[in-house]
Design a protein that fits this description.
- It is a single chain.
- The chain has 13 helices and 26 strands.
- With about 525 residues, it is α+β, with helices and mostly antiparallel strands.
- Strands 8, 13, 15, 18, 22, 23, 24, 25 and 26 form a nine-stranded mixed beta sheet that branches. A five-stranded antiparallel beta sheet has the order 6-3-2-1-7.
- Strand 23 and strand 24 form a beta hairpin.
- Helix 5 runs antiparallel to helix 6.
Length: about 525
Amino acid sequence: MRINSMPSTGTSRRQVTNSQSMRSVAPGRTQSEPPVPLEVGSLVEVVNNAGVTVYGVIRWLGIPEGKLETWAGVELDYEVAGCSDGVYKDQRYFTCKENCALFVPVTKCSPDSRFVCSSTETETFNTTEIPPVPAYEESEEDAPPVPESEAASLFVGKMKGIQGHINSCYLDATLFSLFSSSVTVDAICNKPADKERPITCILKSIVNRLRRQGFVPAQSVMNFRKKLGCETFSKNEKDPEEFISVLFQKVLCIQPLLKLRSEGGSSHGAYTLQIFLEKEQMGQTPTVQKLLDTSCMSGDIKFETMPSCLIIQMPRCGSKYKMFSHIIPSTELDVTDLLFNSPRECFICGQMAKFECLQCLPDHKLQPGRIKQYCNTCNTQVHTHRSRCSHSPQALAVPEGVAVDTPLPRRTMQLFGVLCIQTSHFVSFVKYGPDSHSWLFFDSMADRHGDDEKGYSVPEVRACPELGDFLGQPEEELTWANPALTSELVRRLLCDSYMYLYHSPEMSVSKPSDGEP
């Protein structure tokens, strides 16, 4: 079905006059077909006899017992007195919340006008500024990740990326960050289509359209939110970490991305990692590397295995509280010293480390913010200093069979996405290739066409190579940078960061959870 939440082109343009004339049909008169083809999953609106419009999604289509025409079972956005929970005349057709199921002839339904632009609006729309989007046809083949050489031409512009609607920016920004770049999670392509659940098929359709056309209309994402099965996802704004957990666990069926070992030897899985620390433990302008090291050291947390994908949530609460005015992104994250039971080198001499010291972490004489581990000799020498006599270095678990003089490789992860928030609105930065200048900025609600009731959001993707120039500076210069003197997008990256997304280049995020094929 052609989606009308965008400017239409050519023969695929659909007028709204049919739905308007449907509302003027005299009482008792019926139509054999709805004005626009509707199906299960279509977002629709229904005008009752009192002239009040209600909105919802079609959950069932068919001919109820005792009727001669096709009816629709609509799950409404809000409770309406007199409606049911999916039962009509003692027969259950679907299940939803009480007072949210409305059964009406399908001819009484019309496409949700909140996603539709009228022919008049289309004609006055400035097509030189916002190019029309061609119709899209589904393909059985999965679209591969977009290569770096094609990403800018595919994505950059207005009406690009994922179109936002009704507080969906947390979801739009997350999906764009995960699936737009060449660094992506492709577990959704592992299962045959005939064995997949509808929710997985919807996600596949979103990803394929994003990669082939560079644009996903709002109706697709709204339908995805409905299918998630969580009422709050379909009506209210959520935090990205909640959506990420549902996405990876319930939709992609991927085991927890992180296996964390905490104090006492207990272990647990997680999909995101929250930074916990005291502000006094850090300098005025921390880097992501220092935040991660300090948080894990303070909480006595280690990674049991090397993560394939690491999503780090910054120390802030939405748009209201930020522990730091700005944070310096670490384009490369070194997690070598955060791996449990992994060989580590002495901070001083480079030999095999045997001890680790939390109290040495902020020591300004020993490179503050860096994790400090020592061999036997260096541990004794460092802690004979009068300022460190009270420290309590902890013995490390050293794996057997590792030669003492063997060079130890560093384990690193690469930054590929940043979610940012400002005044409750989420946007994202995505690194779409290995070149340092290959950065995109995405806002699912960058502009608005029409009013709040009848208009629609205009998403936009912008190239921002200036991020590469800024982040390519030495760390010492970055920590002294004044965000007010940088470009708009660099400032937003520094001051509004909410989550950082890293990946391990040599590892794949595609293993299904236990019990899944």
